[in-house]
């Protein structure tokens, strides 16, 4: 029987309870609970999942709606609210409840819909809703949107119902909490629940993660599981899994028209991190070009329509990239006797814009003038027209299949040899990525890597990609020590220092997004998105105290872009600076163009943040350059907005970063190599200083103050004096026993007598100078014993001074050494003076 949608909602509801546990669970404890919950859910529903009449593609699409990039619904939260309200014919008060998701503290649209439908949970339903029904409705909605993939649009149903009526027919049969998850499924965001994709896929079928590596669609993967791999159980024991994986690896092959998965990438945060990852193996160093990833499938049996181009997300963009079809035919010699394959081929490349006039690759943002999105050119309202001397070019860097040969199983150097044989290179139309092999077992490997990195940055490439020379594209049987690829970029590397693209900006306002708020992990968050601006009249503000005027240049969302402490500070301090009335603003704001969204509040005094980016790019529909992929490094509360980057300074920074330096290549690369190596050595020195053993390093007083009592035997040996307090101190008649002990400071033991020796509390100056004051205070007994030990609360320098006097007197030939009685009398008189000073 079909799989019930309520079963899926129960899993998501349980995971949400774990994420919203109060008090919040620790990360490891939360992860363990989530994994146990997922495993238990699959164990309970295993029979239904594996049933022949269950549409497992629909179930996987429901578990991971974000992977269905081929489906576009055009239903963001505001439009989805209107569609549901019309379909359910909600009254005004319930519509107002739905609109509360736009305000902080009310949850997202799914939470608000659940509140509206909560009163109807007790009403009978007309049968249960299955996952297959929900998937069919979403397929019907997506098939009518032109931004969906061609395969989705071809399966268009005959129904002319609006999305609101289609969804209303489903929502009326759902309970309130089930409707909440349906809304989040349409928005392709289950936040605050984030499913561990690899773990869930392994629980679904142990081969599914490996299958999606080379056939990255649920339809193709399930076709294999239900076909050639149908005899394998879904969840065998670990020992059997090893055998089954080896058997499955022999049956697997890429499929024309189905996107191949991508290997995992490790982002090297420093040169040391990169070297630790690569080890002592041979790696191929390949330049990373700033373009759009494309996967080219060739099937000669289709005649003129033999070319298919897939984007990074897996969407079919063949028609949108018609400008490179001719270059592909020419490079591969299609339709000629010189073509190096007979039937099929899969190639990987980077789509860039090349300028014949400048004879170099152009900036990333110029691609949108040559590539449409489902037939429309988006984001180029402020761009110039495409020039005749600018055109698309493909930089090929890998080949995955040639006819029956699965080249992705070959080592990298052999794949590059096959690629060289396939491609006819021509400057401006088809080239291969520059690469070099480095043996990291050699002592010169580190410097060679840095030199290659510096040369790539000089030529305005994004960075480098490191690929194992002796490893396949990715192993199909998960064997060996394959670690994936390493990505080396300037904005990742802390060794770059000031050469990274960093600038200070003013935070002029903020806005709230309900879905972003669920991902933040913060309670009572007011703003999730912050609008950063630049002064357009900075000189007038500084010289003549003119009214500031800002231009919003970017918005930064909290997810992965703002450190959590800074996000908390902005939400906490922003409440004292927010201004909703435009009449009371202390600065002006220039009109903004789409896609920059409007802000909810304006901060009377803008905050100052330090922002890191990956180069400079012209944002869509804008006429200025801005940092690409901006991320907040730090919030500076000690800086004023007049110290931030103005719009003219931003333009100068972008021009400097985009243009090749005026100096020679050798000078610029040499300077960068020296800087990276120097920063590497400096970090290593600081790291070695932090890891120096305490016995060989100088110990601060704060560390010595916390030294355990058992370790104080290593300290200076000071006199230990025993006093019989049955005699009064004024008579100085003491029975003295002096011994060399490990007591610090001077420790006096006394028996209970007529006038016991009770030291008064220390003065503030004495307390600060006393190194062992805390330990001596904690060591005092709470009850007075018959014979007790009294720690004389004196400065350690007093005891050391007494000891030095003894040594000095003993070394003097003219004077006899002082007796212990004299030493004690002098010490007692000094202590009496200190206590009198403290009490006075």
From TrEMBL:
Pfam families: DNA_ligase_A_M, DNA_ligase_A_N. Keywords: ATP-binding, Ligase, Nucleotide-binding, Nucleus. Residues 385-536 form the ATP-dependent DNA ligase family profile domain. InterPro entries: DNA_ligase_ATP-dep_cent, DNA_ligase_ATP-dep_N, DNA_ligase_N_sf, LIG4, NA-bd_OB-fold. GO terms for molecular function: ATP binding; DNA binding; DNA ligase (ATP) activity. The keyword Lyase does not apply. One of its GO terms (cellular component) is DNA ligase IV complex. GO terms for biological process: DNA recombination; double-strand break repair via nonhomologous end joining; nucleotide-excision repair, DNA gap filling. PROSITE patterns: DNA_LIGASE_A3. Residues 679-688 have a biased composition (Basic and acidic residues). Residues 691-702 have a biased composition (Low complexity). Residues 679-715, 749-787 are annotated as: Disordered. SUPFAM superfamilies: DNA ligase/mRNA capping enzyme, catalytic domain. Belongs to the ATP-dependent DNA ligase family. PANTHER family: ATP DEPENDENT DNA LIGASE DOMAIN PROTEIN (AFU_ORTHOLOGUE AFUA_5G02430), DNA LIGASE 4. This is ATP-dependent DNA ligase family profile domain-containing protein.
């Amino acid at each position: 029987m079909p799989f019930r949608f309520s079963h899926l909602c129960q899993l998501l509801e349980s995971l949400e309870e774990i994420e919203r546990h109060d008090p919040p669970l620790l990360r490891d404890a939360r992860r363990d609970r989530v994994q146990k919950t997922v495993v238990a859910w699959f164990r309970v529903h295993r029979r239904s999942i594996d049933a022949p009449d269950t549409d497992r593609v629909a179930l996987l699409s429901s578990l991971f709606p974000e992977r269905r990039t081929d489906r576009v619904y055009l239903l963001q939260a505001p439009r989805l609210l209107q569609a549901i309200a019309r379909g359910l014919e909600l009254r005004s008060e319930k519509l107002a409840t739905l609109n509360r998701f736009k305000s902080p503290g009310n949850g997202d649209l799914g939470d608000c819909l659940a509140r509206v439908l909560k009163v109807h949970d007790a009403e009978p339903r007309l049968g249960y809703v299955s996952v297959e029904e929900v998937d069919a409705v979403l397929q019907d909605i997506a098939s009518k949107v032109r931004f969906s993939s061609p395969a989705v649009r071809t399966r268009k149903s005959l129904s002319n119902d609006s999305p609101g009526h289609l969804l209303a027919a489903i929502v009326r049969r759902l309970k309130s909490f089930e409707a909440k998850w349906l809304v989040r499924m349409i928005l392709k965001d289950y936040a605050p629940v984030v499913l561990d994709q690899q773990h869930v896929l392994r629980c679904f079928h142990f081969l599914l993660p490996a299958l999606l590596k080379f056939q990255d669609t649920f339809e193709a993967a399930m076709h294999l599981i239900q076909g050639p791999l149908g005899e394998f159980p879904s969840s065998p024991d670990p020992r059997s899994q090893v055998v089954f994986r080896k058997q499955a690896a022999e049956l697997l092959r890429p499929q024309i028209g189905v996107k191949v998965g991508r290997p995992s990438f490790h982002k090297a945060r420093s040169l040391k991190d990169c070297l630790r990852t690569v080890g002592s193996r041979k790696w191929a160093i390949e330049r990373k070009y700033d373009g759009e990833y494309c996967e080219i499938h060739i099937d000669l049996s289709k005649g003129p329509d033999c070319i298919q181009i897939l984007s990074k997300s897996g969407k079919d963009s063949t028609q949108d990239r018609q400008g490179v079809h001719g270059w592909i035919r020419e490079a591969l010699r299609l339709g000629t006797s010189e073509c190096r394959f007979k039937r099929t081929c899969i190639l990987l490349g980077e789509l860039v814009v090349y300028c014949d006039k400048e004879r170099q690759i152009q900036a990333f943002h110029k691609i949108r003038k040559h590539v449409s999105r489902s037939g429309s050119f988006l984001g180029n309202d402020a761009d110039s027209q495409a020039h005749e001397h600018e055109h698309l070019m493909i930089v090929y860097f890998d080949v995955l299949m040639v006819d029956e040969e699965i080249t992705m199983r070959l080592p990298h150097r052999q794949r590059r040899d096959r690629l060289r044989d396939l491609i006819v290179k021509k400057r401006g139309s088809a080239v291969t990525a520059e690469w070099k092999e480095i043996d990291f077992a050699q002592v010169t490997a580190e410097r060679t890597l840095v030199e290659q990195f510096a040369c790539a940055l000089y030529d305005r490439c994004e960075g480098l990609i490191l690929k194992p020379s002796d490893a396949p594209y990715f192993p199909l049987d998960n064997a060996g020590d394959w670690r994936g690829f390493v990505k080396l970029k300037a904005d990742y590397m802390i060794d770059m220092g000031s050469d990274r693209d960093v600038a200070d900006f003013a935070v002029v306002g903020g806005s709230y997004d309900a879905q972003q708020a669920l991902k933040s992990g913060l309670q009572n968050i007011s703003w999730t998105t912050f609008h950063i601006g630049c002064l357009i009249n900075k000189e007038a503000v500084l010289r003549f105290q003119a009214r500031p005027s800002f231009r919003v240049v970017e918005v930064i969302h909290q997810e992965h872009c703002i450190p959590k402490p800074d996000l908390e500070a902005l939400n906490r301090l922003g409440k004292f600076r927010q201004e909703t009335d435009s009449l009371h603003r202390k600065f002006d704001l220039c009109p903004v163009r789409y896609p920059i969204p409007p802000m909810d509040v304006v901060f009377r005094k803008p905050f100052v943040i330090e922002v890191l980016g990956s180069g400079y790019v012209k944002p869509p529909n804008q006429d200025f350059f801005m940092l690409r992929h901006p991320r907040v490094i730090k919030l500076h509360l000690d800086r004023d907005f007049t110290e931030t980057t103005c719009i003219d300074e931003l333009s100068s920074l972008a021009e400097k970063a985009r243009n090749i330096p005026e100096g020679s290549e050798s000078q610029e690369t040499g300077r960068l190599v020296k800087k990276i190596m120097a920063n590497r050595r400096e970090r290593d020195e600081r790291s070695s200083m932090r890891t120096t053993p305490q016995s060989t390093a100088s110990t601060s007083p704060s560390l010595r103050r916390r030294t355990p009592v058992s370790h104080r035997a290593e300290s200076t040996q000071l006199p230990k004096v025993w006093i019989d307090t049955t005699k009064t101190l004024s008579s100085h008649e003491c029975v003295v026993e002096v011994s060399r002990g490990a007591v610090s400071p001077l420790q006096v033991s006394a028996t209970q007598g007529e006038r016991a020796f009770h030291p008064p509390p220390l003065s503030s100056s004495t307390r600060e100078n006393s190194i062992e004051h805390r330990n001596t205070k904690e060591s005092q007994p709470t009850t007075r014993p018959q014979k007790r030990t009294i720690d004389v609360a004196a400065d350690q320098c007093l005891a050391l001074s007494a000891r030095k006097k003894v040594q000095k007197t003993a070394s003097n030939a003219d004077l006899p050494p002082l007796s212990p009685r004299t030493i004690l009398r002098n010490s007692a008189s000094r202590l009496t003076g200190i206590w009198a000073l403290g009490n006075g």
